[in-house]
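hey so i finally got around to running the thing on that chain from the lab meeting. sorry it took forever, my laptop kept dying and i had to restart like 3 times. anyway pasting the input first so we r on the same page abt which one it is
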Amino acid sequence: MSRYRLNWYELEELENGDYSISFPVGNIYSELVDQAFPKIEKTGWRSSGSTVFCTNIKSPNVHEVEHLRNFLDLLKEILVLRLNKHLEDHFEDELDQCFALDYNFKSIDDEGREYTDTGKLEYEAKYNRDHNSIYNLAKFLADVCQRHPVLQQVGYIAAVPGNPEKDVHLPDLLVEKMGKILGRDTGLALRKTEETPQLKNLSVEDKISTIEDVFCLEEDIEGKSILLIDDLYQSGTTMWTLARFLKENGADSVYGLACVKSWRDSDNI
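ok and heres what got predicted. didnt touch it at all, straight out
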């Protein structure tokens, strides 16, 4: 599986003042908790059942518990994205973490498709240039950055570049508005040097070969951390290829955050 949503968690105070934390898909979420809270002392993750992981947190203060609960609530709201089986042979750890606000559709069947609330915003923002939809998406993306301890600290927030001749590129608009909401400088001297065709109907190998040499970086990112923003995450080929490019140019860590994830993986082959 390549996309996850935290269905439940338990965070309970014990008699000795420690806290017990447990949740499913522990191999995914324990890693995120460890990276978000490296200074919180824990007893070590242990398996309870086939997929549930748990640990005890040693005498956390009120603020640590509040921040941890807020982070776990965030993970219940968003999707965690990992390499799907079509990309596993081509990438490893180029993206340190990657997320999406939601799927674009609730379901797809013979009767058609129904947008999620976020999917509807993304559609209106991308195809109708609806200003309210663009702002709301930027606000939701900024909220993730504010509630995620790792993403709070990134050095750059940058848009996944669009084709050079594209007049309006939604990720650029989102990053600009995120900067205003967060009160910080955003952007990176990162661009495409040439037009690329739509990747949807290409094989994974052809997708990678089409885009791997089209990115250009015009500033020093040695040792920096970067958060990439995109409107739609399909196969993830563009995000992972761009992350590889940035790390080859000196980035220490690269994260991804998309508005929506496509419903199916089969439309990404």
